[in-house]
Amino acid sequence: MNLRLLSKVLGLLLSLESLALVACALFAVYDDGLRSSASGALFFAALTALLIGLFMVYLGRGKFDRVPRREGVMIVGFAWLVSGLIGAVPFVLAEPGLTWPEAFFESLSGLTTTGSTVITDLEAWPRAILLWRSVSQFLGGLGILVLFVALLATLGAGTKSLFRNESSFQASEVSHAKIRDTAILLWRIYLGLTVVCILGLKVLGMNWLDAISHGLTCVSTGGFSTRNESVGYYSGWETGLAIEMWIILFMILGSLSFLVYVVLLRRNWQRFRREEEGKWYLILIAAAVLVITALRWGMEGDDAGASLRGVIFTVVSIISSTGYGTVDFEVWPVSTHFVLMGLMLVGGCAGSTAGGMKVSRLLLLMRSAHQEIVQAFRPNQIFRMQVNGNSIDDRGRAQTILFVALFFLLALFSMLVVSILEARHGLDFETLVSCVVTTLGNTGPGFGEVGPTDNFAELRQGTLVYLGLLMVMGRLELFAFLVLFVPAAWRKY
């Protein structure tokens, strides 16, 4: 293990995080004055991140031409934990303040773009702290390590190991030599979408802070809001419907694969025509809207047209793993809860800012099941399996099936862990299941005591820390995080 390389890269990442903290601290000075708790907390966090980062860079001084796979895996896993610890500092020091486990949960919820929160009254917090929540989701949305690859060419060819292990980006579709160029283009697209989203929200009537905060958390599909009622705060405005439609558009754009945008910009029309994950994702959204609307109309007699607005927003918010809210979907028929829970599990497209298992894996799983059923009666029939025009070999199929199995096994194990940690609290089954699914799937709100009108504040401190780790596992899609606990795996590289 090259500890000097590990120290240098993590140190540079912390230095990068300190810049974001400084920007929020400067806003705190402008907004509340130099002596406010927010400015002091943010400056202290920035200074801490910078000093630790520079010290780690000093320990890892030297030129490295590449990042080997083993070190890449370690960097990806530890980067989120270290960034989460530093990002928690402002929540502890600023008034009204959180405990360390609560702050760690809130920080990881931001960086992993989960959107779950332990803050009961958002509007009681300094606006600069709310801005830091949004900035953390913006950094985590496309992946701070992808930004790192885009900005720091000194890592050379080894950046491919970082790019590959950073969430669900399909590095196999990008040549080794173009990793850095692609990373830069991805961040330009991400930044461009965010700026357009912010400007649109401002034109529709939001003040600058709300527009910036929601723009940062919309394209990143994070879901943090500056209002206790989330996006529902604006629903009663004259422009409320337009604001909701604008946010829906950018939640969808953020949850589609960003590599599709790269393909479009490079005018690779042949690859664009082969794109089917995005098509099935949109079909899934439309189907879910129709099913939930029909269930509400059939069981409650709701007017389909009147309820359609809330259903569309909720479906897009849940499947994109954003987690904004305009209505309380817990009061809908129980049958709709199963549909929404399924959307939480599926999530968005691979290579997007969304969480969940991803639509491409669902496609591959369904086609694998179809193939196995047919071959049970026609063993000699030969199949050619493809997703997005890419041939999938037996190893790819096995990895997908293993991921889905591991996802559900980890979810079941986590439900057991949370039930033990919350034994005195006595969580109901719906709350227990949904708090695990929403954190592992990076969705945000769940059902029961962690529903859209509640939060995670009532959970025990140990539970919050464990759920925070689940967020990281979901953000890194399990393997890049779990491998940290299997030394025999990475020692063989």
Descriptive account of the structure:
It is a single chain. The chain is mostly helical and about 500 residues long. It has 21 helices and two strands. It has helices spanning about 5-30, 35-60, 70-95, 100-110, 125-140, 145-150, 160-165, 180-205, 210-220, 240-255, 260-265, 270-275, 275-300, 305-320, 335-345, 360-375, 395-420, 430-440, 460-475, 480, 485-490; strands spanning about 385, 390. A two-stranded antiparallel ribbon has the order 1-2. Strand 1 (about 385) and strand 2 (about 390) form a beta hairpin. Helix 2 packs antiparallel against helix 3, helix 4 packs parallel to helix 19 and helix 17 (about 395-420) runs antiparallel to helix 19. The longest helix has 30 residues, at about 5-30. The termini are close together.
Lateral strand order in the biggest sheet: 1-2
Evaluate the radius of gyration: 22 Å
Q: What string gives the helices and strands in order?
A: HHHHHHHHHHHHHHHHEEHHHHH
**Beginning-to-end CA distance, first to last residue:** 10 Å
Q: Identify the overall geometry.
A: globular
The structure class reads mainly alpha
For the residues shown, what is the average pLDDT? 86
Instruction: Enumerate how many helices there are, as a single number.
Output: 21
The major β-sheet equals: 2 strands, antiparallel
What's the β-strand tally?
2
- Helix content bin: 55-70%
Sequence stretches where pLDDT stays below 50 over 5 or more residues:
none
Q: How much strand content do the residues show? A: under 5%
Helix and strand topology:
Blueprint: H1 3-32, H2 37-59, H3 69-93, H4 100-111, H5 127-142, H6 144-151, H7 159-165, H8 179-203, H9 208-219, H10 240-255, H11 258-265, H12 269-274, H13 277-300, H14 304-319, H15 334-346, H16 359-377, E1 386-387, E2 390-391, H17 394-421, H18 429-440, H19 461-475, H20 479-482, H21 487-490
Antiparallel strand pairs: 1-2
Helix pairs in contact: 1-2, 1-3, 1-5, 2-3, 3-4, 3-7, 4-5, 4-19, 5-6, 5-9, 6-8, 8-9, 8-10, 8-11, 10-14, 13-14, 13-15, 16-17, 17-18, 17-19, 18-19
